[in-house]
Write a structure and sequence with these properties.
The chain is an all-alpha fold. Helix content is 76%, strand content 0%.
Length: 294
């Protein structure tokens, strides 16, 4: 990861956003049940992060409180991945990723109701925009949606909620500057996430079997490129990029995920749907860049 220091943080963030946009594609092409693909993503990711921790001599005495919070992070990340991977199977990679990125609204509302932060007019305007855009993508007549499609939409919103809880806990750990180590805590939460997802698979009676080489390749790509490289690169570059620029760049992920859904999986989307995508992405951008005031 030392090569990251020589890269412009904006360039690094763009590259990372493009890489992570393929995560839903890898899930779709893995040809294993949703929870199994989520398990192998964090399992392989844990392996690569453990190697990084050994190389960087990150295995030191750490705060017991932060270790516990990291394990709790792993639980919420397991729930996030489970909901998102299931949503992909029901509504496709593009819409599932856009719904998951609505976490920005969950975080802002949590800040307003729990931490008594003031919300900006920009954020207030972004909420009806996001709702309108989603209706254009999904279809105005919700009664015509199949039960599976409705479940997929609900799972997408659940993804946003679980991911928000994960981010809040991770920020709490990051606030301890003396103890925080990016590689160590990403490794610990990934290992914890693997245990939680593995237990769920075992209890459900599902198989851990990887059926073929193409599936193995998709799962390894999830672990190496998404869970390890993209995560670390984004975490390193975000503090060095202006919030407005970072918000715009990170929108590449859901936008490109939707494009890949259309290109690779023949998602049928007309002018109304594309208009809805644009409106939702603009709303998410406004939500990302609206600064809450204490």
């Amino acid at each position: 990861m030392s090569g990251q220091k020589n890269l412009n943080p904006v360039v690094l963030l763009i590259i990372s956003a493009v890489i992570i946009s393929f995560s839903s594609v890898f899930v779709k092409t893995s040809h294993v049940p949703s929870t199994v693909s989520a398990f192998y993503r964090v399992c392989f990711g844990s392996f690569f992060l453990i190697i990084a921790c050994i190389a960087g001599k990150e295995f030191k005495k750490r705060s017991l409180k932060n270790n516990f919070l990291a394990i709790l992070c792993g639980l919420f990340f397991a729930l996030d991945l489970w909901a998102w991977h299931m949503s992909i199977q029901y509504v496709g990679p593009g819409l599932a990723t856009i719904l998951g990125n609505c976490q920005v609204f969950v975080l802002s509302m949590t800040g307003f109701f729990v931490f008594k932060e003031k919300i900006s007019l920009k954020f207030i305007l972004s909420l009806p925009m996001a709702f309108t855009g989603l209706l254009l993508i999904i279809g105005m007549d919700l009664e015509k949606l199949s039960p599976q499609y409705r479940i997929g939409i609900l799972l997408g919103f659940a993804t946003a909620a679980f991911y928000s809880m994960f981010l809040l806990l991770l920020r709490k750990i990051q606030s301890d500057q003396k103890d925080f180590s990016l590689f160590y805590y990403l490794m610990l939460l990934s290992v914890a996430c693997s245990v939680f997802l593995g237990a769920q698979i075992h209890l459900s009676g599902a198989s851990f079997r990887i059926p073929d080489l193409s599936t193995l390749l998709s799962l390894v790509c999830l672990g190496l490129f998404i869970q390890t490289l993209a995560w670390v690169a984004i975490s390193n570059s975000l503090p060095k990029v202006r919030a407005s620029h970072a918000g715009l760049i990170l929108l590449m992920q859901p936008a490109l995920s939707f494009v890949w859904d259309v290109i690779f999986f023949n998602r049928q989307t007309g002018i109304t749907g594309w208009t809805g995508v644009g409106i939702v992405l603009l709303a998410i951008y406004l939500g990302m860049t609206s600064k809450a005031k204490s």
